[in-house]
């Protein structure tokens, strides 16, 4: 699905991504973990076209998509969410979902004059699809709520819902669990699993919560200092000495020492 070959992204003398190579298999939920500053979000931004690489290649299937802008990747089915949700705060939850699909007839002034019927039909179809998404995510009760009034976890669900409004092939989720209470985190993880199993979505997930990663992800890729350090199952990663030293470190060792 996604293949990254010897990718570099430098900011002056700082090597945020320093020769990373990895593969995200179609149909997987791949976890991407590592300490702060490991280069995870920068890697996401390069793959998703937000940043251009200093060198290296990104392939989607057999197609070289290196450096393509986000809107072109969006139309190829590559989507990403952000650590901070990017909602239209003054619009309702349903309206936020209906805004996602591109090339809507009503986007041009001329069409609003001469293609009113077509616009109405499109909007009705989008409204129906948005309501199906809200039902899937169990947030139908928030249909008419202003997006700016949502909790952090609800905004993350809305971002996930936005990926469902188009035909996504692969979705990159950046710290989807950050600041989310355990109940909503369970709802989010269940939705990701269902989208993967029932609709064939491929995911790559940046997350620091190892319980969340362990529940969702196989394989797990570990980054450190801009490079890929290790890859394997969540259980195997937790027992990898290099990973323990570079990332899990004192926290895991202390936990073992106190018998937690």
Q: In terms of per-residue confidence, which ranges show pLDDT below 50 for 5 or more consecutive residues?
A: 250-260
Largest sheet: 6 strands, mixed
The figure for the number of domains is 2
| Radius of gyration, CA atoms, in whole angstroms | 20 Å
Name the CATH superfamily assignment of the largest domain: P-loop containing nucleotide triphosphate hydrolases
Strand fraction: 15-25%
Q: Whole-number average pLDDT?
A: 86
- What spatial order of strands do you see in the largest sheet? 6-7-8-3-9-10
- The computed structural class is alpha/beta
- At CATH level 2, the architecture of the largest domain is 3-Layer(aba) Sandwich
Pattern of helices and strands? EEEHEEHEHHHHEHEHEEHH
Count of DSSP H/I helices = 10
Give the CA-based shape: globular
CATH class of the largest domain: Alpha Beta
Number of strands: 10
CATH fold-type name of the largest domain: Rossmann fold
Oligomer: single chain
CA-CA gap between termini: 39 Å
Share of residues in helices: 40-55%
